[in-house]
Amino acid sequence: SIETQLRVLISEPCCMHLNENPLMILIDGLDECEGQDVHLEILRAIRNSFTPHPLPLRFIIASRPEAHIHEMFESPLYDGVYRPFNLEQSFNDVQTYFQDEFARIHREHHQTMAMVPFPWPLPEVLHKLVWKSSGYFIYASTIIKFVDDK
């Protein structure tokens, strides 16, 4: 099980290093694992690994803001042991990227864009693209590469 693997491969070896600085463990893309049940099982296993003794570990969980993951972190199980990070800045950065790149495409694609008014795309379309990106540049860069392809 995931809980057994976490205990045997991570928690127990780390118990020997209780007086040292904490180690960081990054789990990137939790939402990309197969199924909601697996997401919640991983989060429960991480939380259970800290009982009965606190470990010199810090977990960073990177994930899209899926409702079931958010609910797990808001549950009493995680009360007082997690800190959410505000991703608003990444959304702002993606918006700036989209604005700059769409403006460049509008300037450089003379024939295609000659009859398209600026600003392009419309602000509500830009807002939808930023929202759909979930703050991830990979989404934004894929859109720009597609639109920029002459």
Descriptive overview:
- This protein has 150 residues and is mainly alpha-helical.
- 55% of the residues lie in helices and 8% in strands.
- It has seven helices and two strands; from the N terminus they run αβαβααααα.
- The chain has helices at 2-15, 36-48, 67-74, 88-108, 110-113, 123-133, 137-148, and strands at residues 23-28, 57-62.
- It has a two-stranded parallel sheet.
- The radius of gyration is 21 Å and the shape is elongated.
- It comes from Rhodocollybia butyracea.
- Residues 4-64 form the Nephrocystin 3-like N-terminal domain.
- Keywords: Repeat.
- This is Nephrocystin 3-like N-terminal domain-containing protein.
Care to count the β-strands?
Answer: 2
The best one-word shape is: elongated
> How far apart are the termini?
50 Å
Helical residue percent band: 55-70%
Order of helices and strands, N to C? HEHEHHHHH
How big a fraction of the residues is strand? 5-15%
Widest sheet: strand ordering: 1-2
What summary fits the major beta sheet?
Answer: 2 strands, parallel
Class by helix and strand content? mainly alpha
Count of alpha and pi helical runs: 7
* Mean pLDDT rating: 85
Organism: Rhodocollybia butyracea
Protein name: Nephrocystin 3-like N-terminal domain-containing protein
Keywords: Repeat
Domain Nephrocystin 3-like N-terminal: 4-64
